[in-house]
Amino acid sequence: MLGILGKKIGITNIFNEAGRNVPVTVIEAGPCFVLQVKTKAKEGYDAIQIGFSPKREKVTRKPDMGRFKKAGTSPLRFVRELRVNNPADYKIGQTISAEIFAKGDYLDVVGTSIGKGFQGGVRRWGWKGGDTGHGSMFGRVIGSIQSGARLGRVTKGHHLPGHMGVDRITIQNLEVIDVVTDKNLIIVKGSVPGHKNNYLMLQEAVKRPKGYVKRVAIQASTKKSVKATVKK
């Protein structure tokens, strides 16, 4: 499975070939450096550990500095692990750039959502709230949360006010609109989690759209028919 680390640059809109306005997100993807290669024989699973975005050596811990020196890279700020199908294709110190993806691919983007602090139930869970007429004393308060006669306790998992945001979120099947290899930019259709300059993980989509599968099948059948025509 292909994957890379990146940073959210911002959102904008472009016009496609049909002249339609498409909202897109610009992501700075790579260059990333392979720090460790894990195999099923040694660690029990196949994966690679990669890093992105350089940082100062002064603020880097000594154990991490040993890992970076072993890989022959400068200290990196964002380090994550990606599962791969064939770890033999990767070597420590290898560079991974945005060229691994192309226009028309579909990605799963993982990031951290924007923090919204402590929020009430109306905003956090979409509660309707009470009557807002004259004399009403309900408003946006919690109200009754459990019957004392039935259970005598609050049901586990009950929706209540609390901290909102800063959650790990995965957005699936984002289409790659364009890849600018000289600037390490990947432009995807739609939005991705997090604020500006938020770090992201980009992986090839696990659940590809039905149209994507059909399009590949059509292209394959077209190539076969063309070859058959040339042979005749």
List keywords for this structure.
alpha+beta; 12 strands; 3 helices; four-stranded antiparallel β-sheet; 16% helix; disordered C terminus; 232 residues; 36% strand; six-stranded antiparallel β-barrel
Describe the structure.
This protein is of the alpha+beta class. The protein has a domain at 117-164. Helix content is 16%, strand content 36%. Strands 1-2-11-10-7-12 form a six-stranded antiparallel beta barrel. A four-stranded antiparallel β-sheet has the order 5-4-3-6, with helices on one face. The protein is globular. 20% of the residues are buried.
Helix content: 10-25%
Structural class estimated from helices and strands:
alpha+beta
- Overall geometric form: globular
How would you spell out the order of helices and strands? EEEEHEEEEHEEEEH
How many DSSP H or I helices? 3
Spatially, the strands of the biggest sheet line up as: 1-2-11-10-7-12
Radius of gyration: 24 Å
Major sheet characteristics:
6 strands, antiparallel, barrel
Strand share of the residues? 35-45%
Number of strands: 12
Please summarize what this structure is.
The chain is of the alpha+beta class and 232 residues long. The chain is 16% helix and 36% strand. 20% of the residues are buried.
